[in-house]
Design a protein that fits this description.
heterodimer; A: about 260 residues; mainly alpha; MetI-like fold; 10 helices; globular; B: about 260 residues; Rossmann fold; six-stranded mixed beta sheet; four-stranded antiparallel beta sheet; 10 strands; binds adenosine-5'-triphosphate; binds magnesium ion
Chain lengths: ~260, ~260
């Protein structure tokens, strides 16, 4: 192993899969050996069976669909406001000076702590779930985009000016394309963040969703269902992440070439 | 009438911190650049060469004095003054051709016309076959050639270059000087070229302007009368040597004054 030397694609995939195998093997070993009681931790096989059962007989597809829609919906709402706001804050320093302190403060407010308030304000319906995701994503995203846009190279803007651009053209033709790959990357990371908030939002006052299934299963001590739920969240998150990454690589090939 | 008139232009940078005195980068300087002149500005590091060029480009505003382009005062940057910077400033997300067409697109020129113009300049800077490459795929010398083509494609009234070849190795640098001089000999452009390399300054110039150590002012102006087209062989001629010796003296005195 040499420092910072990249590995080939195949090797990379192989190594990545290998750890999953090791992880599941250890998990299997712990449960099969009887070191941990079954109702504490379900075995991998049992988890797969309950996952199958959840989808086949308990309409779990609907739950997964609801959860995905809430995460994506809340995330998109956040993105639609955070992207233009972040760009405005990054390019125009007075706007940044106006919003930045508040946004920095709001970023540290834990989204899940708003749940009781939100139930009071908007009820236990979809609006509450979307708002939690929105709060969890919005401030973080705004700050990340502000930082990315602030880092736009001054010399490129100056070059654009000397080629005849005015301010708006410079934003459209230099700031945006220059920041786009990193903005896309920030969106990817923050979407991941959305997934960590949704379950908490669904634990309280939800009649559908993966989180709802998990609360129900807790009452029944069905650890296999709970683990199946967790694994499925992980898988959905992983898939959306990979898809996002692929799209970014496709769109911004120029930023990867060396 | 001069193409570019620099009249008593001075620049003082405020320090921005209390108790720290402002920096006087440029003492009021005056300089006339005629149509199709090739002026090189020579001076020790930190003497205000870049500041002077940025003032002409409109990227800085003078503390005192006026700058006139074709008799009209400049206010802010514009497409009538093409700039090639010392750092590589190609847009990384655009290909060579798209970079060259950047200013043309801003003028809403038709695609066919953009293509025709970019084709011409790609050929002129010797980058046929690299039209669709991204800047990262090019060497430093190639990137600066694209930057020159990008500035020229806009057909500016004056071309401003700030040590464009400063980061290149010696051989490449010499080839680039010949390339730029060749373009100038063909196209007839007004050029202001900043450098701290004496050979470079003499080889391309129709006039060398020497600046003093900071705060910069113009210390000497020397016409260079070698006939065109010039080839690199001129560098070994006795006249060239004599000019070089003289400029070396001037610069040396300044560099010592600047305490380097
Ligand atoms: N934006 C700025 N704010 C404050 N001081 C500045 C600024 N730009 C330049 N200066 C100062 O002005 C002086 C002249 O700088 P300038 O970049 O014009 O020198 P130069 O002749 O181009 O030097 P070099 O050959 O190293 O490029 C320097 O002392 C520099 O520190
Ligand atoms: Mg400089």
């Amino acid at each position: 192993m040499k420092l910072l030397v990249p590995v080939s694609r195949e090797k990379r995939t192989l190594l990545g899969v290998a750890f999953f195998v090791v992880f599941v093997a250890l998990w299997g070993l712990i449960t099969w050996s009887g070191a941990v009681p079954k109702h504490f931790l379900a075995s991998p096989w049992q988890t797969v069976q309950s996952a199958w059962d959840l989808f086949a007989t308990q309409g779990f597809t609907h739950d997964v669909g609801m959860t995905i829609w809430r995460v994506v919906g809340g995330f998109l709402l956040a993105a639609v406001i955070a992207v233009p706001l972040g760009i405005a804050m990054g390019t125009y320093k007075p706007i940044e000076a106006f919003f930045e302190p508040f946004v920095s403060f709001a970023r540290y407010l834990p989204a899940s702590a708003f749940i009781p308030l939100l139930i009071l304000w908007v009820g236990i319906g979809e609006a509450q779930k979307l708002t939690v995701i929105f709060i969890g994503c919005f401030f973080q995203l705004t700050l990340m985009i502000t930082m990315i846009v602030s880092a736009t190279r001054r010399d490129l803007i100056e070059a654009a000016y000397t080629l005849g651009c005015q301010d708006t053209a410079a934003i459209r033709r230099v700031v945006l394309p220059g920041a786009a790959p990193e903005i896309a990357e920030a969106l990817r990371q923050v979407l991941g963040l959305g997934w960590t908030y949704i379950i908490v939002a669904e634990l309280i006052g939800a009649s559908s969703g993966i989180g709802h299934m998990i609360t129900d299963s807790q009452a029944l001590m069905a650890t296999d269902n709970i683990i199946a739920g967790i694994v499925i969240i992980g898988l959905v998150g992983l898939i959306s992440d990979l898809a996002f990454k692929k799209v970014n690589q496709r769109l911004f090939a120029w930023s990867l070439q060396r | 009438m001069s193409r570019l008139s620099i009249r008593n232009v001075g620049k003082i940078f405020p320090s921005g911190r209390r108790g720290v005195p402002p920096t006087e980068a440029l003492k009021p300087v005056s300089l006339e650049i005629g149509d199709n002149d090739f002026i090189t500005v020579l001076g020790p590091s930190g003497c205000g060469k870049s500041t002077l060029l940025r003032l002409v480009a409109g990227l800085e505003t003078p503390t005192s004095g006026d700058i006139l382009l074709d008799g009209a005062p400049i206010s802010g940057p514009g497409a009538d003054r093409g700039v090639v910077f010392q750092s590589y400033t190609l847009f990384p997300w655009l290909t060579v051709r798209e970079n060259i067409c950047f200013g043309l697109r801003e003028k809403n020129m038709s695609a066919a016309q953009q293509r025709e113009i970019s084709e011409r300049f790609i050929a002129q800077v010797g980058l046929r076959g690299f039209e669709n490459h991204y800047p990262k795929q090019l060497s430093g010398g190639m990137q600066q050639r694209v930057a020159i083509a990008r500035a020229l494609a806009n057909d500016p009234k004056i071309l401003l270059l700030d040590e464009p070849f400063g980061a290149l190795d010696n051989q490449t640098r010499v080839l680039m000087q010949e390339l730029l001089l060749g373009i100038w000999e063909q196209a007839q452009k007004t050029v202001m070229f900043i450098t701290h390399d004496i050979d470079e300054a003499i080889f391309m110039a129709s006039r060398v302007v020497v600046m003093s150590a900071r705060p910069g002012r113009i210390k000497a102006e020397l016409p260079v009368d070698f006939p065109h087209p010039r080839s690199y062989t001129v560098k070994t001629s006795p006249e060239f040597m004599a000019l070089k010796a003289r400029l070396t003296e001037e610069i040396r005195a300044e560099a010592m004054a600047a305490d380097h």
